Amino acid sequence: MSRRESMTCAHPPIRRQELDGWFGPVFGGAARQVALAVSGGGDSTALMVLFAEWLAGTGHSPAEVVVLTVDHGLRPQSRLEALTVAQWAGELGFGHAILSWQGNKPKTGVQAAARAARYRLLATYMLEGARKLLLTAHTADDQAETLLMRLARGSGLDGLAAMAPLAPLEVALAPGQGPIFLARPLLAVSKARLEAALIARGRGWLEDASNTASQFERSRLRAAANTLAALGLTGDSLALSAQRLQRARAALEAMVAGFCAAAAGHYRVDACGSIRIAGREWRRLPGELQLRVLSQAIAAAGGAGRPLALAKLEALTTALAAADAVGAFTLARAAVRLVDGDIVLEREPGRGPGPELTVAAGAQALWDGRFWVGAGPELEGLLTVRALGRPGVRCLRALGQLPGGVPIQSLRAVPGFWRHDQLIAAPSLGFLAAPDYNRYGLSAVFAPLAAGPAVGLKTPAQPAMTALLPQPG
Prior knowledge:
The protein is α+β, with helices and mostly antiparallel strands. It has three domains: about 5-250, 3-Layer(aba) Sandwich (Rossmann fold); about 265-345, Uridine Diphospho-n-acetylenolpyruvylglucosamine Reductase, domain 3; about 355-450, no CATH class. It is about 40% helix and about 15% strand. It has helices at about 5-10, 15-25, 40-60, 80-90, 110-130, 140-150, 155-160, 190-200, 215-225, 225-230, 235-260, 280-285, 285-300, 310-320, 390-400, 410, 445-450, and strands at about 35, 65-70, 95-100, 135, 165-170, 180-185, 265-270, 275, 330, 335-340, 340-345, 355-360, 365, 370-375, 385, 415-420, 420-425, 430, 445. The strands form four sheets. The chain has a six-stranded mixed β-sheet with strand order 3-2-1-4-6-5, sandwiched between helices. Helix 3 (about 40-60) packs across helix 8 (about 190-200). The model is unreliable at about 1-5 and about 450-473 (pLDDT under 50).
């Protein structure tokens, strides 16, 4: 029996009802807002083929759906492979775009860097095209491997919950921009079954040699799959554990969102970039919820844009939860101190001058990982955005515009709009050097205020995309 015959016999054919269950809940009928991430490997090619098959059965045209292929430029044949995917996508009726990772590539940590570049390119394309839903071909095998890798690192519940079927794509969104959702409709399907489906349909796929390269962690896990299965650690059992952990995570996130809701009054966000957590109420929370609330506040106040080290977060939580807690702490660019029993978080004072960026008319950008700054179309010339620092605070004090009740540390870290050495505006403080500057439309919005009280959290539940995307007609 040939490999083709053995694979198709070993795995039951994919039925129409299954396609409905995989794609129906996430589609919502808005094809123009959907994109598929397809590399040309067996999993992503199956996603493209099966999605086209499902669209045909529902009467939708694939023409408005775009297939995106990232050319990482890490192998000589990568461009040809991307062009091959473009040809396959066109045969199925999809649009296609190749996104190229430009610039120098790292010598170490290549897979992590490639993943970051891939999602950055995909997110940029989605935002520019006002697309809201990105489908990827992660499988049950990928889920099991992710859980095992994170178990080896001593991850907490969030890490062991692995990949969610539907989650916001982690990308900085400007105020008013809707979220991009990442959907993994094949998360409960095995890689072998998808390849069998392609063989049954007479479709080929591309093989990437790096998938079996022993220097990569996932490749080593795949090589050990039979040994793990003999111990009962099958892909199905691991994926089931991840699914159950996701349910627990969603419950915890809902509790955190409730604690941090403005109406509860326990988690107060200041427009200047500081956060105050009611210490008494926080200390009454179970330890896991204390960690999550503090993690969210540190990410927002520090704006570091990278995951927190769990061990450091646990140590800080333990110190702050102690009945006799005193002192000040720093973690991930956030300064944390106790004020009358409450926990106050601000941007840690920088050792250097801080970030600067130039703003033109109609521009908008994320400054210091914390504030969305922008200018209206009437701005004349260019302005520089940088922290107020000592000069800005000195200027505001001289003008009698220094607000009360805001810690001096927070004031110095607030973004100001400057023309050369002249402070033009500090929108977070309601300051304009001249009333006429109001026509410039200068703005500075602390990111947590733009995104809501649950900044840094995954969505508490995984809603069907039909509730998130506009319906036809």
